[in-house]
Design goal:
The complex is a heterotrimer of chains A (206), B (101) and C (640). With 206 residues, chain A is mainly alpha-helical. Chain A has six helices and no strands. Chain A has two domains: 81 residues, Four Helix Bundle (Hemerythrin (Met), subunit A) (Up-down Bundle), CATH 1.20.120.1200; 65 residues. In chain A, helix 1 runs antiparallel to helix 2 and helix 2 runs antiparallel to helix 3. In chain C, the strands form two sheets. Chain C has a two-stranded antiparallel sheet. Chain C has a two-stranded antiparallel sheet with strand order 2-3. The chains are: A mainly alpha (206), B mainly alpha (101), C mainly alpha (640).
Amino acid sequence: MEWAVFVVFAIAAVGGAGGVVLARKPVHAALSLVMTLFSVAVFFVLEGAQFLAAVQVIVYAGAIVILFLFVIMLLGIDREDVLDEPLRGQRPVAVAAGVALFAGLLLVAKILQPTGAPSVRGSLTQGDVPNVERLARGLFTDFLWPFEITSALLVIAVVGAIVLARRSGPGRILDEDERVGGGSDAGPEAVLIPGDAPEPPGEQEQ
Amino acid sequence: MNVPGAWYLALAAIIFCIGAVGLLVRRNALVMFMCVELMLNAVNLTFVTFARMLDDVGGQVFVFFTLVVAAAEVVIGLALIVSIFRRRQGATADDISLLRG
Amino acid sequence: MDAVRLAWLIPAFPLAGVVILYLGRRFLKEPLSGWIATLMMAGAFVMSVVVFSGLHSLPEENRQVVLRGVEWITAGGFSVRFGLLVDPLSVTMVLFVTGVGALIHLYSIGYMHGQERFTRFFTYLNLFAVSMLVLVLAGNYLLLFLGWEGVGLCSYLLVSFWFERPSAARAGKKAFVTNRVGDFGFMLAMFLIFSHLGTLDLLSAASSAPHLSRGTATAVALLLYLAAAGKSAQGPLFIWLPDAMEGPTPVSALIHAATMVTAGVYLLVRSHPFLQHGPAAGDVVAWVGAFTAFIAATIALTNFDIKKVLAYSTISQLGYMFLAVGVGAYTAAIFHMVTHAFFKALLFLGAGSVMHGMEDNQDMRVMGGLRKFMPITAVTFIVAWLAIAGIVPFAGFWSKDEILAATWVGGAGVSAHYFLWFVGAVTALLTAFYMTRQVWLVFYGDERWRGKLHHDPHESPKVMTIPLVVLGVLSFVGGALNIPKEGFKNLTEWLHAAVPVKPLEVHSFGQGFMLSTIAVILGVIGILIGARIYNRGLRNGQDPTLVRLGGLGRFFDRGWGIDPAISWFVDKPGRALADVLAQPVDQGVIDGAVNGVAAVFAAVARAVRKVQTGFVRNYALTLLSGATIVLFIFLIRGTV
């Protein structure tokens, strides 16, 4: 029974991942991402991390992907040409590196054994404690300090986002060849390295 | 009946690699970000798998924190993307190349 | 109360003089600056006497005092300090350097009267004194070399003092460059000494010298002799000294008669262990010395310039000193150095006095009969003349006689020493002759200057004549330093602590007496011939000797053609070599190598720069590739 669920949602997860990478429009990519996120949530349930599955759906699929969609709509980044690759050699090397990495990870999984050492932070399942309670107990005792720090991190993130996204004045839509922050394809305004001026992306060499 | 942990690990590896390749190949900033999220999810899956295999609650707690940090990261990252690409139609990651030596 | 420890003060006095005169050069003018400089020298002389008495009060075994001084250079195994060696030899040198030097300073106050750069002259004189004293008091070869270079520098500064005259500027350069050839030998010798003996300290090197192989010791000795030859105008390196007469006469007296040129002799005497263990070197030194003495004497025979005659005379007398060093009679060499300082300085100062009274004329053809007009100068000059001619009981007789006697006995395995004695004897005859010629042409005979000067010649002021008188007295009694009779051999005994070499004794008193008599007779013969020829003055403005000797005379007069030969050699092959080295070697190889290294770096940088594409995705790719590689490294490490 579990196997069937696993296989189905494995296919969904991988399919979603491929969709993110291969989709032409960003919105399609976001939707594929949702599919993958849901599948991962199912896996969490299968592995007995029910609380995490819930959090995954709520936070990831519910909040983060929504944010993505908002930004897509805001910025109007519509289509992108996935077919050509301006940077020479980037694609083949990237694929090769990805395959190599996968092979390496598989080997690691095969070769290295779990040590069987006693739990570092206490058993997950002993005593048949419900998952939420076990997690909460661990969070507020052993992991209290990281917990507080990450909450501070969240506050900082919020403040930072507000500061970053503020408009400093009425902006205008830039032309095709203008850069953000001033300057144009003819060259940047402040030349830090004398000699070479950046060239437009179309004619870049590596 | 139980699916062995190794399968989950392999699955996580696949997702991670797909996400990595996608990060390198796509030019759209938002799609690149989504690939990063893919990679983070793969890592989360790995942690949970190990929590189950080693019977350790630390794995799941770590996923908790990863989620939090990922959320914060998305917030800031999107704010940056918005502020950089707000005025430009069709902005790509290749346009930020002032560090060219 | 350890007076010897005060030896530091001896060079400190003239050094203070230099500082005072330089810093106060705007306010200190004639004659105050001259008196300051002279007082400093006098102070140094007083300190020398104090140190001498301190050293004298020590028992003989303790008479080599090393003052350690401040650390100078320390690099790995190499360590040199500003240390002094106070022993009988250095104290002797210091005494006559400061004494004669003070007298010459006093004289210069009168001689340089009215000169524009009066103060600068005395600054240079004091600087020279500092360098010479450092040279003599140094406890190691490197510090000695420092003084050595210092006196070379001051010689250059002082010879070209009137640098507006192109001949003077050229002479200064010639002196410096010729000295440099010798310095090259000095440096090589120091390298050899250090690499074989591990120290540059004078005493340590001297005591370890026997450990060297014959070949190495000979090489060191010969290199040091090269240095000495450069400084003391021996062999082909004599060419700078006659030209150096372009400088003011006190400079000629101090540097080129009494002190700097004797530095070479001092160096060799200090390094006598090397000479003793490499006897081939002694041969070279003795032969070159003897022949230099002879050749220089022949050149002086017909020269009309009053200073040039004395210059060649100096070269000749230095030849005697080196002859003595070559045969191992070190004490005799030092003895002659001291007496020579007295009478040669006197001769130069006297010549300066003559020139002063003759409106700076140096040509002896327009002199004559001056003894009536300059009595003091004449009398003192005559005293010096008798001394250099080797007439008993003047100082020069005793010292020259000792050298000739030692050569006759033949020490240190020098070959054919009887022949060398013969050369020395002939030279003594020639010396007496040309000095007599000079005295007669200047002070006796017709007054050939009549009608050619604005005023009649006059005696010099007291400031100039007092030093003449003092030196005259010293030239007369100076022989008492080392009369070869028991109880009077003061200098030999005194120097024994520093130069523990058995002096060369004649085999019997009778032999010694005969040799001395021959020496005196030679001197007298020379005087008589000279007096007879020049009593009649010049015949039609021609020198009778030159006329008599004909072609040979002209050959002597032109300096045996040595100077032109050297110039030709330096000009043709030397210039060609320099051209080769400048163009292809310096520009091509050396500059090319340096620029090439820079170019390599630039090329590498240009290539590496391509990594910085500016694209984040490229960087991310690099990151991922790196991470994958690290993963595989761990995998392989774990399994293999």
